[in-house]
Amino acid sequence: MSEKKAAGGLQGIVAGQSAISTVGVGGIGLNYRGYDINDLAYKCSFEEVTYLLLKGHLPNQQQLNELKTLIQQKRQIPCKLKQILETLPKESHPMDIMRTVASIVGILEPETKSGQEYEISIRLISLFGPALLYWYHYSNTGIKINENTGKDSIAENFLKLYHLKSEIDPLVIKTFDVSLILYAEHDFAASTFAARVTVSTLSDFYSGITTAIGTLRGPLHGGANEAAMQYLEPLRSIPQADQFLNSRYQSKQLIMGFGHRVYKMEDPRSPIIKDFSLQLSKTANGDPTLLAVSQHIEKRMIEEKKIYPNLDFYSASAYKQCGVPTPMFTAIFVISRMTGWGGHIIEQRSNNKLMRPVSEYTGPAKKQFVPIEMRNKANL
Ligand code: CMC
């Protein structure tokens, strides 16, 4: 067996085949099942992209209508899940809630036979937002929300349930919807790869998803949108932004929301979400200072470090202007990436082989065994 030398972080290693998306092929570009991310973001809904990623093709009108009806049904929160959510502390991190929801649904509605992947994916995509917001409102104010907001899209349902309003600004809904499209799929990103490893052992669908949620959470991956907002929030002027950047440069700390393993130039998703974040900044509820600071940081990072913003950087200001609290940012990423994870689990299972790489051993040479009574005398 020929073995390729290990690269740190598996950088540049082709770890399998996939027909779902192209990430940075030739250094640029992102396509889902052959469709350019710009077309999908500006001309499609998240529901169409969900269908595309899970079924392999865009839906026709009837298929889309059926999917929307299914989503409406599948957003109902089971009573037992509500009871559990009511016991969870308000200090819990939303990512812990998401991981727990996936796990509890895996117990209440287990995967019992083959061919259930599409239905379970739609169940989780539809339920994650309502369940998170049920916990959020109950734990903070004792209100038990009604998760059914009729035929609303995933985006509109989330925003209505969070804000407890029956009308949401269409630009806010569109921005949120576009963010879901942009976050939906990204090839063998760490969380997707983790899900594929888990199901390659013939484990169940929900175990693949809980693995993925745990992997997404870290700030080098999905947690970067929350981490970006945490440093952006207190910066209310350009001098403050300069002071922040200079001190990070000096201490050689990472600037979250910048850089990417694959894209070494611009992340193709970044200008799209920036466009919507800028549009929001010009509205009555927008935050032009946040955008001015963000653009200044972007300009300096490109000019001085040649490091470009990734999707997480302008998602932070976009979500903030949608009125969503910072700790929920990565949980929203879960709702979206559930589509990509579902597509990858289906693909992995269609041609499964246990994922079990080898390491390059760097430990001690073979040693003579030392009995326990001799160990304090021996040079171990
Ligand atoms: N801030 C400051 N310096 C950076 C950054 C950053 N955000 N990203 C990369 N660099 C530097 C890095 O320190 C290294 O410098 P040097 O060569 O002097 O040691 C150089 O750029 C190359 O970086 P790298 O660590 O070899 O690149 P990588 O491919 O291993 O890392 C990354 C990719 C995403 C982990 C990294 O860019 C990073 O930590 N970014 C911040 C976290 C972040 O925004 N993550 C979201 C990624 S995109 C969405 C997603 O996948 O969820």
UniProtKB/TrEMBL annotation:
One of its GO terms (molecular function) is citrate synthase activity. Keywords: Transferase, Tricarboxylic acid cycle. It comes from the Eukaryota. GO terms for cellular component: mitochondrial matrix. This is Citrate synthase. GO terms for biological process: carbohydrate metabolic process; propionate metabolic process, methylcitrate cycle; tricarboxylic acid cycle. Pathway: Carbohydrate metabolism; tricarboxylic acid cycle; isocitrate from oxaloacetate: step 1/2. Signal peptide: none annotated. Belongs to the citrate synthase family. The keyword Lipoprotein does not apply. The keyword Transferase applies.
